[in-house]
Amino acid sequence: MIIFGTRGYLYQLAILTLVCGHCGNPSAHTLRKRVTKFTLFFVPLFPVSTSYATQCTFCGAEQRATKEQAEQLQAQAAGGHTGPMYGQQPQQQPYQS
Ligand SMILES: [Zn+2]
User: Fold this and answer.
1) Per DSSP, what are the bridge partners of residue 46?
2) Is residue 77's pLDDT more than 90?
């Protein structure tokens, strides 16, 4: 007798501050990856489907995201600032002779 089925796994990839499309609040959103795996004798073998979603922690609204969007959001969360850095440039003093 062969026992097989599927099992869902939920991974939290990142937490980002985004403006929610549902409630309009700039609140923390969790970026989640849901993987459904094929199991044989309760041993997960290979993923059948993978989907991504962001969920607003303020109102709980979930929005589906594509793989590309998820990767972009994850990079954003990991990298912090993506724009140019406005900092103090080290002052170079020319030598006076
Ligand atoms: Zn919301």
Assistant:
1) 38
2) no
CA–CA dist 72, 1 (Å, integer)? 44
Question: Residue type at 94?
Answer: P
Q: From CA 50, how far away is CA 66, in angstroms rounded? A: 10
Q: What's the rounded mean pLDDT across residues 13-21?
A: 94
Instruction: Give distance in angstroms: CA of 23 to centre of ligand 1.
Output: 4
Q: Please give the structure tokens belonging to residue 87.
A: 């900092």
Candidates 15, 19, 32; CA nearest to 76 is: 15
Tell me how far the alpha carbon of residue 75 lies from the centroid of ligand 1, in angstroms.
22
CA of 66 to the centre of ligand 1 (A): 19
Distance 18 CA to ligand 1 centre (A): 9
